[in-house]
Amino acid sequence: MTIFELTDVTCRYQDVPALRGLSVSLAEGARVAVVGANGSGKTTLLRMLDGLVFPEVGTVRYRDVVLSEAAFANDGFAYDFRRRVGLVFQDADAQLFNPTVFDEVAFGPLQLGWSRSELREKVDEALERLRIGHLRDRVPQRLSTGEKKRVALASVLVLNPEVLLLDEPTAGLDPKSESQVIDLLVGWAGGAKTVVTATHDLGALEDIADRCCVLHEGRLVADADPRGILSDVPLLERANLVHAHRHHHPGREHSHPHLHGHGHDQGLGPRG
Amino acid sequence: MSKRSRGYLERTLDALLEVMDRAGEAERRAADRGLLQRLDPRVKVVGALALILAVALARNLATLIALLLFAIAGVAVARLPFRLLATRLWIGTLALTGVIAFPALFTTPGDAWFRLPVLGWTATAQGGTSAAYLLLRVVTAATLAFLLVFTTPWTHVLKALRVFRVPAVAVVVLGMTWRYILLLLQTAHRMFEARRSRAVGPLPGRERRRVTAAAGGVLLDRSVRLSQDVYLAMQSRGFRGEVHVADEFRMRASDWAALGAFAGLTTLFVWMGWR
To answer: Do A165 and A225 share a domain, yes or no?
Structure first.
């Protein structure tokens, strides 16, 4: 079943086109990676799926409902949507605005009117799942980058959404923290959750997604399985997702596209 | 790099960050497991405000001294170091209040008390009493506030204000303002650090002012973007204009007993102060 349907979506962000004529549909239970260089429109796409930004042209449908300001003016729909769809922002500082970690994780359930007993139970559960129970009374702004990410994740996962949108979830993390976050997300998603991850970390692509959409300058330039995307070198170069390594040998120099992976760099074949 | 080669703005930023770090120490001490630290924040806020009211209403020095001794006893019970009280609070408070109280010694009419040798100003006994009242009220009230802040996390103090029907939105805005001031100070500090790492020697005054103005513009732009993202993040998790805060406080028997004790002591001090 289709859960999101984007039809010819165009959106500007401060007079800069962020998305141009984007059409894509996402099935329920899909694990999708949205990849692209900085400024390709990944964040705008996620915010559009979360009903925070609306297109100037085209439509975004969540199930059969067109996401618009009018739709969110309806309390019933708004609460239902916010309960079912969660977005983890790239910048944890934007998402952590409560006085303590407990308050941060409790914010969503409070706004959605959960009972006090249910709130306590679910918040404690989320804290334990993310292994941040010991940070319960800490001020989020004074935590490390990895801890902030965990708190940001917990603040969304506590709602147990059916759709999880992640904007660069591993950005700025050390390798161990990055691995832990990926393991957590893979373990959480199971089979019934829809997960859309915006990233330019191609090394984790096959772990986190079954399908990969490549954005370049606001346009969808490819939509295939991760292995197919990773093997399409011209595409990756065009989308600024790989760089070239230069090697100097006696008498000659050559370069080849290079993709960083998890501890094993992947050369993509020499050139020149 | 020497302090002299850093501009006034940079030194001010560093000083503000130091203040924020000190505030962090208050948070750490408030997390200790002392007798006062374990009391319900609402009880402590109500108790502190009630005693500060008793300080304001007191009409004799004996009551003010008794209240000050009670506050000092509270510092001892909370196991807060007196050095902290003296250096963080009393020195500054006494100095500032002393400057304000000093003229009262010589301008209040009354019986001559002593005469300044060079200036020839005559201090009166009544002026001395007025100055003593002012100093004792300020120092005692400040000590009670110090006790509250160092035994209660600031975030709990804000939430406890809900007892007085302070709107939740005011509590949330105050808390967010505090947190994001810290974040912006840290951002500004990093910007100036980055600039110093790319400069050799001090910049000429004109250039320094130009760079500072540009940094101010960048910081303002980042602040606006951050505030927009914060608002989106709030909306994403269900915020629709009315904010709800988690009320995790629970009154225990010891909290009720403490509340009763605060009520009794406040009544006693107010009665003593009005005799």
So the answer is: yes
User: Residue written as tokens 């990926």?
Assistant: A182
Q: Where is A221: in which H helix or E strand? A: strand A219-224
Query: CATH code at A8?
Result: 3.40.50.300
CA neighbours within 13 Å on the CB side: how many for B163?
Answer: 16
| pLDDT-derived band at B119, boundaries 50, 70, 90 | confident
Look up residue B52 and give its amino acid. Answer: I
- Neighbour tally for B74: CB within 10 Å: 21
User: Does the distance separating the beta carbons of A87 and B182 come in below 8 Å?
Assistant: no
Which residue range(s) make up the domain with A195?
2-241
B33 touches chain A (CB under 8 A): no
**Do residues A10 and A57 make contact, with C-beta atoms less than 8 angstroms apart?**
yes
ipTM of the prediction greater than 0.90, yes or no: no
B31 at the A interface (CB within 8 A)? yes
The total of structural domains in chain A comes to: 2
Shortest Cα distance from B194 to chain A (angstroms)? 19
In this structure, the answer to whether residues A201 and A255 fall within a common structural domain is no
Please indicate, yes or no, whether residues A148 and A37 belong to a single structural domain of this protein. Answer: yes
* Its pTM surpasses 0.90: no
Q: Mean pLDDT of residues grouped by 10 in chain A (272 residues)?
A: 95 84 93 90 94 94 94 93 94 88 92 88 91 89 88 93 92 80 72 82 84 92 90 81 63 57 44 40
Q: Which residues pair with B52 in a beta bridge?
A: none
pLDDT at residue number B71: 94
* Cα dist from A48 to A27, A244, B179, whole Å: 16, 33, 28
Using a CB-CB distance cutoff of 8 angstroms, which residues of chain B are in contact with residue A126? none
